C-alpha cells in the first residue's frame, strides 16, 4: 500500500511548472543585474533562439522519452525492480538515494556525449552557445533527447526509480541546470562553499570553455561529488579568461535557429579539436 501510494505518484505538474518557471524568471532577472561574464550577444535574441530549440526538445521528450519512462517507472514500482527498490528504505530515503544515483549516472552520460562522435555531434549544439545563461540550460538538440532515451530507460531499470523518484530527479535536475548555466555572479565566498556540494555557475562556466582541459572537467549536474570522485573537478580558471563556446563552431555559425537545428546533420562528425591554454596559478579554492 505504501508503495502504491506515495512513491507511485509523480511530482504534480503544477509544482514542476511553478519551480521551473520561477527559477528561470528569477535567474534571468539576476543575471541581468549581476552578470558573471561579459555578454557577447543580445540576451533577448539568444534567449528567444534557445527557447525555440528547447520547444523542439520538449516535444521530442513528450513523444519519445515520456511514454517509455511512464511505463517503466510503474513496472519498476510494482515489481520492485532495481537497486533502491531492493533496499527496503523508508520512502524519503528511497527517493533521495534514487536522485543521487540518477544524478551520478547522468554524469556518466554527459561524459559519453563528449567522447562518442555521434553524441558529440548533437551535444555540440548545447556548447555552441557563445554566452552561458539560464536559457543555455534548455538549449539541447531534439535528437540528443531522442538518443538519450535508452540510457534513461536503463537508469530507471537498474536504479529502480519509481514515478516519484524519477519526477523528483527531473525537477531537481531542471532547477540545477538552470542555476549552473546561469550567468549569475554569486558572491565568491558563497560559491566556494556551495561548489563543495553542488554544481555552480563558475564551475560549469569552466566546462563550457573552448579549452580542452577545461571542457573535460566539471561534468556533474546536481551534486559536484562525481567530479571530485573522478578527479575531474577544476576550480582554478578565472571566468574572465574563459571563452565560452565550442571551438568547432566559429564566428556567427550557429547563431540562427535554422543553423542550430541543421548543423549536426551537415557538419562533419568529429570530436572537437580544442584550444589549449598555458599554465594557470594553482590553488585549492575556486577562483573568481
Ligand atoms: Zn557538456
Notes on the structure:
The protein is mainly alpha-helical and 288 residues long. The protein has one domain (11-266). It has helices at residues 2-7, 13-33, 43-79, 83-86, 91-115, 117-127, 142-147, 149-159, 163-181, 188-194, 201-207, 212-215, 225-229, 257-266. The mean pLDDT is 91. The structure holds zinc ion (ZN). Zinc ion binds at residues 110, 114, 123, 127, 207.
As a percent range, the share of helical residues equals 55-70%
Overall, the morphology is globular
Classification by helices and strands: mainly alpha
Count of runs of 4 or more consecutive helical residues: 14
Q: Name the beta content range.
A: under 5%
Overall number of strands: 0
Q: What's the Cα radius of gyration?
A: 19 Å
Taken together, the total number of domains comes to: 1
Show unreliable segments: none
The small molecules bound here are:
zinc ion
Report mean pLDDT, rounded to a whole number: 91
**What letter string, H or E per element, gives the SSE order?**
HHHHHHHHHHHHHH
Characterize the largest beta sheet: strand count, sense, and whether it forms a barrel: none
Question: Termini separation (Å)?
Answer: 51 Å
Amino acid at each position: 500500500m505504501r508503495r502504491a501510494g506515495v512513491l507511485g505518484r509523480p511530482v504534480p505538474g503544477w509544482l514542476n511548472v511553478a519551480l521551473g518557471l520561477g527559477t528561470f524568471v528569477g535567474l534571468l532577472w539576476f543575471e541581468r543585474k549581476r552578470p558573471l561574464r561579459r555578454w557577447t550577444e543580445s540576451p533577448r535574441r539568444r534567449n528567444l533562439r534557445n527557447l525555440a530549440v528547447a520547444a523542439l526538445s520538449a516535444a521530442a521528450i513528450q513523444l519519445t522519452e515520456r511514454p517509455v519512462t511512464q511505463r517503466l517507472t510503474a513496472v519498476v514500482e510494482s515489481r520492485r525492480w532495481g537497486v533502491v527498490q531492493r533496499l527496503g528504505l523508508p520512502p524519503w530515503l528511497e527517493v533521495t538515494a534514487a536522485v543521487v544515483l540518477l544524478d551520478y549516472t547522468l554524469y556518466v552520460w554527459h561524459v559519453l556525449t563528449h567522447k562518442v562522435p555521434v553524441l558529440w555531434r548533437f551535444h555540440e549544439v548545447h556548447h555552441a552557445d557563445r554566452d552561458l545563461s539560464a536559457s543555455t540550460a534548455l538549449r539541447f538538440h531534439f535528437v540528443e533527447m531522442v538518443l538519450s532515451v535508452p540510457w534513461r530507460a536503463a537508469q530507471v531499470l537498474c536504479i529502480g526509480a519509481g514515478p516519484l523518484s524519477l519526477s523528483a530527479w527531473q525537477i531537481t535536475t531542471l532547477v540545477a541546470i538552470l542555476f549552473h548555466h546561469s550567468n549569475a555572479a554569486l558572491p565568491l565566498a558563497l560559491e566556494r562553499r556551495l561548489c563543495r556540494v553542488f554544481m555552480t555557475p563558475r564551475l560549469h562556466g569552466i566546462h563550457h570553455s573552448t579549452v580542452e582541459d577545461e571542457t573535460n572537467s566539471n561534468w556533474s549536474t546536481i551534486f559536484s561529488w562525481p567530479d571530485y570522485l573522478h578527479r575531474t573537478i577544476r576550480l582554478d580558471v578565472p571566468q574572465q579568461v574563459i571563452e565560452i563556446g565550442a571551438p568547432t563552431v566559429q564566428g556567427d555559425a550557429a547563431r540562427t535557429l535554422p543553423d542550430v537545428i541543421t548543423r549536426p546533420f551537415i557538419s562533419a562528425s568529429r570530436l572537437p579539436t580544442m584550444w589549449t591554454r598555458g599554465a594557470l596559478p594553482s590553488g585549492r579554492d575556486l577562483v573568481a
